[in-house]
Write a structure and sequence with these properties.
Blueprint: H1 3-38, H2 45-50, E1 53-60, E2 66-69, E3 74-76, E4 84-90, H3 97-111, H4 114-118, E5 120-126, H5 134-144, E6 149-152, H6 155-164, E7 169-173, E8 179-183, E9 187-190, E10 196-200, H7 206-218
Helix pairs in contact: 3-7
Length: 222
């Protein structure tokens, strides 16, 4: 083989090697970019507030209360530990706020990626135990999403639980002899330690909730 032919072959191998290295480098950069794009965006507390979410400076430890699950079994507030739970107080006879909120929570829930959704619960706490028996509560919440669940309980325990989460509610008599229940419209966030972590203010927006929820999860140190 002549020196010119050998030199040309070496040049081709060098060019090929350079191209391979450049392609691998570009693939690595692209993979890193896509991975970063998939990571939750961490935003400041001020940005959280601007997007309708409030994170407590120090999560609040909750007292233990016994409530009644929509399965008919006893539900203890300590069972909230181990997962992220979004808690909304309402009742099945609520004419507008409750169905609108649960519909929005379903939209928010559907936007989450599979890994995030796996350890996220949506819980309706009924403040109308007189009418919201377990089966009715069960059917109501699952109408919005089969993965949602509900609890209710004795009035005093419900009141204590709501007070710890800063959610007001009050039974209001109606002229026809019936009653309704006024209640706060915020959605409370419980962290995996079972502590009150923050809340989302009404009106809720699924996109903003996703942004703020993922950020609060990303900065949680357990």
């Amino acid at each position: 083989m002549s020196k010119n032919v050998q030199h040309t072959a070496e040049q081709k191998r060098g060019i090929l090697l350079t191209v391979v290295v450049m392609v691998l480098f570009m693939l690595a950069v692209l993979a890193g970019f896509l991975n970063k794009m998939g990571q939750p965006r961490v935003i400041t507390d001020a940005e959280l507030r601007a997007n309708g979410a409030i994170k407590l400076e120090r999560p609040r430890i909750l007292d233990e209360f016994e409530l009644l699950a929509d399965s008919g079994e006893v539900f203890k507030t300590t069972q909230l530990a181990g997962r992220w739970t979004l808690v909304f107080f309402g009742f099945t006879h609520c004419p507008d706020v409750c169905p609108a909120t649960l519909s929005t929570l379903n939209q928010f829930y559907q936007t989450l990626d599979d890994d995030t959704r796996t350890d996220t619960d949506i819980l309706l706490v009924s403040v109308d135990p007189q009418r919201d028996k377990p089966q009715q509560l069960h059917d109501y919440v699952r109408y919005f999403n089969p993965n949602f669940f509900g609890v209710t309980g004795e009035f005093l325990n419900l009141k204590r639980f709501a007070n710890q989460l800063n959610v007001p509610f009050n039974k209001v008599p109606l002229d026809d002899g019936g009653y309704t229940v006024d209640h706060g419209s915020q959605v409370v966030l419980i962290n995996p330690r079972g502590h009150y972590h923050g809340f989302f203010k009404a009106p809720l927006d699924p996109a903003k909730m996703k942004l703020t929820y993922r950020s609060m999860r990303a900065t949680y140190n357990g």
